[in-house]
Amino acid sequence: MNATEDIGWLDDAAVLDATVERLKIVKGLGLNAGLDFHGRLHRPMAKQLAKALEPYRPLFIEEPILVEHPEALKQLAAQTSIPIALGERLYHRWDAKPFFEAGLIDILQPDIAHAGGISETKRLANMAETYDMSLGMHYNTEAGDRDLNTYLKDQSVFAINGGHVAAPTGPGLGIEVDEEMIRKISAETQPWQPKEFFGPDGSIREW
């Protein structure tokens, strides 16, 4: 789940309380969760949030700090027991290699739809971009009424059974894309613009 919206470089620690409370609620329901920081927090706040989350043992924290700052990520990795995940901003295996060599991450998450994927999955990335599988989903829509199944002819492919999804057995990716639905939604959808976060003083924050 998302960790936070935009936060100042050095903000009031109380802005992190809601994130911790949400994780407590999820754990109280008997569920596990990973938290995606989206690289929105700078080191001073990322350190505080990771520390505050530790007692509730999330599965992982994703992009606690942007990959452009491996030195800050190294410091954070030495300070937290929570597994660290990242990868959607890395384009190939040689981008990921230094993070493995330095022991900075525990989970690699290449994003074949957004970042282009590591070289071995580039063909899948091209296919995902061709079908625009994130069209109108997640933060790409205001309505929030679409998900992965919206674009599938057979939605049972991703049916959850016992907390897991079975590996697809069909040809190729194991799915059949509803191209007619994609064309319909494409015609109705305005171009998506990434969020821009600005602090009260006009300063630019990571999105």
UniProtKB/TrEMBL annotation:
It comes from the Eukaryota. Residues 12-83 form the Mandelate racemase/muconate lactonizing enzyme C-terminal domain. Gene3D superfamilies: Enolase-like C-terminal domain. It holds the Pfam family MR_MLE_C. PANTHER family: D-GALACTONATE DEHYDRATASE, D-GALACTONATE DEHYDRATASE-RELATED. This is Mandelate racemase/muconate lactonizing enzyme C-terminal domain-containing protein. It comes from Aureobasidium vineae.
